[in-house]
Design brief:
Length: 181
Amino acid sequence: MQDIVKKDILEVLEQALAALEAEDHHALLDLSNHVIHDASIFQDDDSVSFAVIIYALSKIVHRCDNEKIPVPQVASLLQEAKDALELSKEDVYRAVIKRIFDEVKKLDEKVGLYITEVINQARIKKASKMTEHGISLARTAELLGISQWELQDYFGKTQIPEHELGVPVKHRLKLARSWFQ
């Protein structure tokens, strides 16, 4: 496991434990978005599996909140995973993650859908980064095996600040108008 991935997972584990204790599904969902971003960058098994677990936990805690039922106790397993990772026992960490998957599967039969959702989100986020580097939307969709519609839907929901695009809006507008004169 890369050091940067390990460090980030440890930080998120700490925050996830606090969010679980507070039964805060919004915080878990925010953490889920963060680790999905990591999964899209690093594309390693540890990042992807961790992203799926955090996403699934956010969904489970949200459902428990809506249905006014107690949140399942998985915090001890998350703590065990964190402890193993802090001691650089990556094999133990992965075994605990597998146990967490098993527990989550017992709690929610939709885990397979969560895995698909996380992987799709990671691919779409990766695609957005590719287009930011000048690769066309059509080519990016083709390279990643997703539809242009999925990318356009994602881009419609994101807000890329204009200053990050490199060319000021006025200049782009002037250029576009020159094409039609």
